[in-house]
Amino acid sequence: MITMAESVIFEHAAASGTDFLMYTSDFCGYCNAAKRLFASKKLTCKEYNFNEHDGLRQAVVEATGHQTVPVIFDLRGDQIMFIGGFDETHAYLRQV
Q: What is d(CA 35, CA 32) in angstroms, rounded to the nearest whole number?
């Protein structure tokens, strides 16, 4: 069963039309590094900033258990894949 928190992520992913979905916050060096990483690999990313959407951080933390930013999902396959933060994404993109 999909929780209300997970449904927010599914909605964002369905509407993104990009390779990746990323949740960020203001003044986040790792978020900026992730954007540069995607650009260097010519991958697209839809960003949602927690500072601009009330309650979004709580929903994403509830759905993923990931409490830091960025929170990144790969949307390129048949199913949404939660990757993690910048370090996990950097390692993940070296493997695929």
A: 5
